[in-house]
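Hi R.,

As promised on Friday, here is the backbone we talked about, encoded as structure tokens. Could you run it through your design pipeline when you get a chance and send me back a sequence?
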């Protein structure tokens, strides 16, 4: 019966759960899968989430389908290990998130009116989450902001939490002034302090930059991903133009590559204008 399920392409999630159970079977499973634990699988989970985001950014819907499957597999992997250890099951995880979604949307699944602004709904959502944290004995303002988040994203979330209790600059002017101050401190540190102190001052600048993004309504992680993609695209343009004349970046110099960079930018802008 189990083999029938594994080969039934229409069996949905039950098929995937059985595949994972078989992979983890201590007697007949895959040696690599059997050896894994939560700590060894966690990096793959993070990587798959980023690959989902990458496919979305590139609007590659066919690849997104595959990446979503890879990410789903990570949830199934963790829940199988959780079931083996007696912590939770796939069904209990599904029940938990379903209950959470119902509880957090009383204006959809309960008696509350849907006649409210998006801002009001956001405030309501945050109030519900605060009550949930209180129920978990997470009493500190910053409790529950995951340590494992990418540092830039965690900075954004920490500052967002602090702002809820009034620990925030009133406008972007103060944030920009702080960036200027931190930049001056980094210059001073570069010339007079240790590497560890220079690293600290550099971190301070990144932290304030994340805060500026929050004040501007910009997700710093998403903004940096977009800039990384832009840099990659333009540098590949430099490589293509060099290849057209039989050269590589190693055969070039900064002045030539700077000129090609400007040309790639100009072509992008011309193309955007035509669009």
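Update: got your reply. Pasting your designed sequence below so it's all in one thread:
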């Amino acid at each position: 019966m189990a083999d029938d399920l594994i080969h039934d392409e229409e069996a949905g999630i039950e098929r995937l759960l059985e595949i994972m159970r078989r992979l983890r079977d201590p007697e007949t499973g895959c040696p690599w899968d059997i050896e894994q634990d939560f700590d060894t699988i966690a990096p793959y989970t993070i990587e798959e989430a980023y690959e989902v985001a990458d496919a979305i950014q590139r609007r590659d819907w066919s690849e997104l389908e595959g990446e979503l499957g890879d990410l789903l597999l990570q949830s199934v992997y963790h829940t199988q290990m959780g079931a083996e250890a007696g912590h939770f099951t796939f069904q209990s995880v599904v029940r938990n998130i379903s209950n959470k979604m119902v509880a957090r949307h009383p204006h959809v699944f309960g008696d509350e009116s849907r006649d409210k602004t998006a801002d009001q709904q956001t405030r309501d959502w945050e109030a519900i989450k605060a009550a949930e944290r209180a129920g978990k004995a997470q009493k500190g303002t910053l409790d529950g902001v995951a340590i494992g988040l990418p540092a830039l994203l965690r900075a954004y979330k920490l500052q967002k939490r602090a702002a809820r209790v009034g620990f925030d600059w009133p406008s972007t002017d103060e944030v920009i002034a702080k960036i200027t101050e931190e930049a001056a401190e980094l210059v001073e540190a570069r010339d007079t302090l240790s590497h560890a102190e220079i690293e600290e001052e550099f971190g301070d600048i990144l932290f304030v930059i994340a805060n500026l993004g929050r004040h501007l309504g910009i997700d710093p992680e998403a903004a940096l991903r977009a800039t990384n993609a832009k840099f990659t695209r333009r540098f590949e343009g430099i490589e293509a133009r060099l290849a057209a004349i039989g050269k590589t970046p190693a055969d070039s110099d900064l002045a030539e590559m700077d000129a090609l960079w400007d040309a790639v930018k100009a072509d992008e802008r011309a193309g955007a204008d035509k669009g």
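One thing I noticed while checking it: The first helix runs from residue 2 to 6.

Thanks again,
M.
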